[in-house]
Design the sequence.
């Protein structure tokens, strides 16, 4: 083999910079042209879909989940969920992009609740014993409503899109390297994207939903002091396995500590708008 020889075994291989540069330019353009501001916290986020697209996506998944679930049609618990939802919705009216809010109660042992883009909220009966009272239920629903208003679903999709594009660009950049090295680089990048970008990102979303939800429920005259108590109950949970809600909503000492930091602000709102 001569010194210009092309062989797959050549150590180091060839790294192409151009795809990465193009991705970086596109990424910056994408980032700055899709800036939005999250209500209440004022954080900048990137969202690249319209509210209509977002609402259509949410509605589609919502219908699908409900069609596969045992949906409770009437009763005191459903009424409570709807009236708590309406109160929080009104408290959030200034930040509400005009979502068509819907609340469902699903018969299930899972201790879970979720909100989909566009304002579709579901609560599972399994979480009711942990919610324990109206204020506890309001903490859970405030958190979910906050996820929807802060457009966390659409933001996550924008980041996933960027991550996929970045991975493609990286794939093109290393395509001249030998297959073993390509695999190593791509695996490292994949792990970096997951643990460096997407996971911390979802933790940030959880904290943000905690904070916005707390402010909303104080404005709606639910007792914000129930929030840390609720998360403690959630942590003690079903004893053996942690509740489903926890696996996507990691509770921790940090979470309770954050509530303590935010509490003076929430209590002031609560006392001002509700006369204590
Ligand atoms: Zn959450």
Sequence:
């Amino acid at each position: 083999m001569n010194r210009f020889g092309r062989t797959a075994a050549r150590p180091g291989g060839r790294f192409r910079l151009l795809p990465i540069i193009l991705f970086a330019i596109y990424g910056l353009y994408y980032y700055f042209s899709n800036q939005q501001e999250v209500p209440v916290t004022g954080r900048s986020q990137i969202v690249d879909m319209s509210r209509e697209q977002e609402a259509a996506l949410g509605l589609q998944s919502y219908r699908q989940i409900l069609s596969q679930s045992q949906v409770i049609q009437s009763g005191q618990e459903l009424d409570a969920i709807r009236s708590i939802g309406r109160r929080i919705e009104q408290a959030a009216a200034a930040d509400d992009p005009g979502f068509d809010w819907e609340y469902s109660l699903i018969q299930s042992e899972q201790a879970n609740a979720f909100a989909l883009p566009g304002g579709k909220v579901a609560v599972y009966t399994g979480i009711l014993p942990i919610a324990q009272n109206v204020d506890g239920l309001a903490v859970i629903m405030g958190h979910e409503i906050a996820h929807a208003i802060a457009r966390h679903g659409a933001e996550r999709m924008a980041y996933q899109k960027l991550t996929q594009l970045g991975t493609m660009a990286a794939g093109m950049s290393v395509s001249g390297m030998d297959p073993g090295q390509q695999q190593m680089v791509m695996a490292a990048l994949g792990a970096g994207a997951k643990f460096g970008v997407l996971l911390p990102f979802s933790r940030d979303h959880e904290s943000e939903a905690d904070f916005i939800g707390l402010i909303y429920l104080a404005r709606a005259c639910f007792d914000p002091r129930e929030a840390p108590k609720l998360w403690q109950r959630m942590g003690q949970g079903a004893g053996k396995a942690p509740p489903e809600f926890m696996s996507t909503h990691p509770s921790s000492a940090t979470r309770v500590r954050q509530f303590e930091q935010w509490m003076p602000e929430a209590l002031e709102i609560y006392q001002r708008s509700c006369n204590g």
